[in-house]
Design a protein that fits this description.
- The protein has 188 residues and is mainly alpha-helical.
- 73% of the residues lie in helices and 3% in strands.
- The protein has 6 helices and 2 strands; from the N terminus they run αββααααα.
- The longest helix has 54 residues.
- It is rod-shaped and about 120 Å long.
- The N and C termini lie far apart (131 Å).
- The N terminus is likely disordered.
Amino acid sequence: MGRRLAGNPGEKPWYKAWIWLLILVGTLALSSSCSPTLTAGLFGKQVIEPSDQGFGSQARLQQALEHLKRGEYNTAQKILNEVVKQDTRPRVAQEAGFYLGIIMLYEMDDLAGMEACRAYFGDYVRKYHTGPYGGNAAKILQFVEKQIRLALRARVQAREIRTLRYQIQKLEEIQEETERKRQPIETE
């Protein structure tokens, strides 16, 4: 069974397949030991291992995203600001900047926060409109502008409601006054 048959010239000996397999495994082992990433399992996710010089910008970005997922916005914002300031690669800086805007989006509670978020995403879209996050930033900008319009309309309606309540209160006071003046006239 593993011998080469004289009548079959295309059949290879069984040990040649094992040699090719060992060469492939050795190449994979050497290439993974030379890179800063490790592979968990055969088809697992890549895990970035910190180097002796500290975390790289991409690893810091991933760390910030983990904080963002857990709702730790201040920590994530601090890390993202560091990445934006320190990294010279445009893609990493764009990604970190985009997630800084997402933090602003999460934290916008009032009209001032919405306007700050709109200004941030407006600048982002102008700077990186052709970048990988430019389209998403433009959609977020449209969303924030719509929220601002709704907040402004709600503010106007709240003012109108306060005015109407004041007018109703004054009308009730006038009606009470009229009722008080009418009672003595009816008794006479």
